[in-house]
Amino acid sequence: MSKLKGLPIGFVGTCLGLATLSNVYNLLGYAWVRHLCMWLAGLAAILGVLKVVLFFPKVKEEYKSGVLAAMYTTITMCAMLFGSYIAGYNLAVGKAIFWAGMLIHMCMILCYTIYHIFMNFKYDFLLPAYFVTYNGLLVSTVAGINMLPPALAIVITYYGIGIYILILIFLIPRIMRKPIPDNFVQTKTVLLAPCSLCFVSYLNFNNVAALKGLFNPIVALLLYVCVLLSLLYILCNTFKFFESGFTPLFGALTFPMAIGTLAGFRAGAFFSNIEAYKTLGAIAVNITGFQILISSTFMCLVFFNFVKMYLNSKKE
């Protein structure tokens, strides 16, 4: 139980990243990778819930940090992703897990807003990690849009796009005025997650008959431009992430890179089928190849460092 108490919440985020990236491997024909990573995400969600229930005082203390508090929502994001996976085998059970994760995530958005925005907000502490809580809800429209009423899917998607723009308006001047502290430098990768979630969620409108009429290729193009700019920003900062030793915050490298890769894969498929955007589609396909390589490297590096951290603590 003491090991569970010390479970880094970044480990849950890493498992979320692995499960997300496994969807890309599944699309490439590697189904076993998806099965393994999805069950790992399910296990991570269970461990995260147990930590919250059994060691609430510890969690309450960690929640005082805006970054750690944001990463606790990766538990519900894992639940939504795992629920969508289980729904392929048992719809009732899968939907129950999916909806539980989504509704709890909504409650966590409310808690985060009250504590870290209304009660304790400091502009200098505004970091990309804020996106995790607010845009994490879009995992529901990325992974399970067909399990949502069309009206709710619309609300969540447009909420995600709106909150992404709103936070970005305040975050960009904050970063330009005062750089992100070195001990939080890995959270820069989070910038790739919200635009990627918005992009994939919006593309999924094409998968729901009731939503196809709302789809606009220009909006999709603008969102993908945001994905590319965010990816470029991350690549320019990559070497800074590894200047210090491994810490649980390295978990922030995983899900954003994974969802960014999925967004790239979907962009390549989508734009390649539109005559006016075929060149962009070809570019997206090739960029995605590099994204798969980089993301897979990050996933393995971070996951095995968490395992190493656990084994070393066990020896002590």
Brief account:
The protein has 316 residues and is mostly helical.
What descriptive keywords fit this protein?
316 residues; mainly alpha; Glycosyltransferase; 0% strand
Say what oligomer this is.
single chain
Task: Report the β-strand fraction as a percent range.
Answer: under 5%
* CATH superfamily grouping: Voltage-dependent anion channel
Helix content: over 70%
Low-confidence stretches: none
What is the succession of H and E elements? Answer: HHHHHHHHHHHHHH
> Which class best fits the helix and strand makeup?
mainly alpha
Shape: globular
CATH level 1 name: Mainly Alpha
Largest sheet: none
Q: Judging by the overall fold, what is the CATH architecture?
A: Alpha/alpha barrel
Number of strands: 0
Per CATH, what is the topology?
Glycosyltransferase
Number of helices: 14
Q: How many separate domains?
A: 1
Kindly report how far apart the N and C termini lie.
Answer: 15 Å
Q: Give Rg in angstroms.
A: 18 Å
Mean pLDDT: 93
GO cellular component, one term: plasma membrane
Keywords: Membrane, Transmembrane, Transmembrane helix
InterPro entries: Tellurite_res_ion_channel, Voltage-dep_anion_channel_sf
Transmembrane segments: 7-32, 38-56, 68-91, 97-118, 125-145, 151-172, 184-203, 215-236, 248-271, 283-307
